[in-house]
């Protein structure tokens, strides 16, 4: 089962200054990003897989994930090296770790937020078949 339960982490008013009012849910079980399964599961709950388009947003997400690797709604599976968000918008600002994305195993078409010495530059490409935690968002 892809989804066990969601933990609602914030009310909409608290982070209104970062992005128009939204709710967030951190998936408590791990799952693959492949076949947009997470996106489908989020849509069933009227949410989307998280899209991170600014550094303030990334810093906020880092406080939610407690040193867990999390899938973000970003991939280059359609055209290698052309990173797109699940909302179909192009990646304009990336927060990649040094040397990433590198498509190391030849099938690293999904992106995750990792952790390390740099709290901002922590994205990595990874095979969509790997299992990680993920976050859904809902704009209200």
UniProtKB/TrEMBL annotation:
PANTHER family: C-TYPE LECTIN DOMAIN-CONTAINING PROTEIN, LITHOSTATHINE. Gene3D superfamilies: Mannose-Binding Protein A, subunit A. Residues 44-137 form the C-type lectin domain. InterPro entries: C-type_lectin-like (IPR001304), C-type_lectin-like/link_sf (IPR016186), C-type_lectin_CS (IPR018378), Ca-Dep_Lectins_ImmuneDev (IPR050801), CTDL_fold (IPR016187). Keywords: Disulfide bond, Signal. Pfam families: Lectin_C. Residues 1-21 form the signal peptide. This is C-type lectin domain-containing protein. It comes from the Eukaryota.
């Amino acid at each position: 089962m892809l989804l066990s339960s969601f933990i609602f982490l914030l009310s909409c008013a608290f982070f209104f200054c970062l992005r128009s009012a939204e709710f967030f849910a951190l998936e408590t079980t791990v799952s693959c990003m492949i076949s947009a399964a997470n996106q489908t599961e989020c849509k069933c709950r009227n949410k989307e897989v998280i899209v991170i388009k600014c550094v303030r947003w990334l810093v906020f997400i880092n406080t939610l994930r407690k040193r867990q690797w999390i899938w973000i709604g970003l991939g280059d599976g359609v055209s290698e090296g052309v990173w797109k968000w699940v909302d179909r918008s192009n990646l304009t600002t990336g927060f990649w770790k040094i040397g990433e994305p590198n498509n190391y195993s030849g099938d690293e078409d999904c992106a995750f937020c990792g952790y390390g010495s740099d709290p901002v530059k922590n994205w990595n490409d990874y095979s969509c078949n790997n299992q990680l935690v993920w976050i859904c968002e809902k704009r209200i």
